[in-house]
Give the backbone structure.
Amino acid sequence: MTLTEKDSQYLWHPYTQHKTAQTPIAISKGEGALLWDENGKEYIDAIASWWVNPFGHSNRFIADAIYKQLTTLEHVLFGGFTHEPAIKVAEKLIEILPKNQQKIFFSDNGSTAVEVAIKVALQFFFNKNEKRTTIIAFENAFHGDTFAAMAASGISFYTQAFQGMFIDVVRIPVPVKGQEQESYDALKDVIQKYNCAGFIFEPLVQGAAGMVMYEPEALAKLMQICKEHNVLTIADEVMTGFGKTGKTFAMDYVTEVPDMICLSKALTGGTIPMAITTFTQEVFDAFYDDDINKALFHGHTFTANPTGCAAALASIDLLHTEEMQANIERIHKSHLDFQKKIEKHSKVITARTLGVIFAVEIKSESEESYYGSMRTKLYNFFIDKGVVLRPVGNIVYILPPYVMSDEQLQKVYKTIEDAIEMV
Ligand SMILES: *Cc1c(COP(=O)(O)O)cnc(C)c1O
């Protein structure tokens, strides 16, 4: 049996209707921005394997750090124990995060980082005997697939089977250009009507919605409104963190500081699943008490896994090298040139760039659904040409590993141009 035949016998893939899905491609090797399948066909990974892999596949620097840690201390329980890798990650993050972030809580993936933040927002008020049980989130947000994260997410076909079983979430419009006032007014309105504990948002870019972008000034304004009403703010930087927007964190563009930040994806350079939720001292202090019932009763078996921490430390070191910063700048400039060229095309509605993130919306005859026919046609075209891109409806986005060469990037652009001609 081939790998793909065995796969279809044994495996259940994410976001996949197995009856109608094409067989998956079996990848056997990765290096830098490239992947190779079992038949030796080469692909450019133009989306950094779901946005996790900024430093390239099979990165030696991170691999060496992991090996060293694996042969020193691979894991120790974090209940009642601690270790240097976790402390170093905390020190490092506190140094580079917005200045008010003081406490680090480890978990395993983006959804759990969000789950922890939402539970903390709710218990923060419970611990203070204040009744606040509603979470505010943006329309079309994506915060993950566990229950509270799913409740906060607004992409409805992901969550429709579970309607009526969620924590209370109210939604406000995203303050995209021209819609800012509507968003501010909606926020004030929901804060008036509901007992709001927290506001969770993807800062500046809504990834899964199709790289929808909005301005830092608008986010600052929304955060100010929250602050005036003592609503906790949660920046979900799971996608935007670690250089994607051109700064280390998207929040580095914003004049306001959040109460909590969620991190995962690029945290370990795409090597080991790990996530972190960070907090202000004030949030932590609401749980700090002689009463054990005020503690945060949340944890995972692999919390602060030392190997994951070693990978995170190596990744953060890599991010801050001159070479990697120059790569980010180079890709950003290149995207801007491509945007200028492509946005004039008659089949293009709009194009946008922030940091290494680029997105183009293609005109379509019919209303394009998330997994609609245009999306499938585009996806297959890209795969055929050896470029990994996953369009969202009629939106094609690029989020390359920072190590992608100019030549590879030009090939990605050219393939997108050809795809636009084709549809
Ligand atoms: C991917 C993502 C998540 C969920 O992360 P997982 O590791 O897939 O659970 C949460 N928030 C945002 C903004 C994301 O992009």
About this structure: The CA atoms of residues 152 and 387 lie 32 Å apart. The pocket of pyridoxal-5'-phosphate is lined by residues 109-111, 114, 142-144, 202, 207-208, 236, 238-239, 264 (CB under 6 Å). The chain has a mean pLDDT of 96.
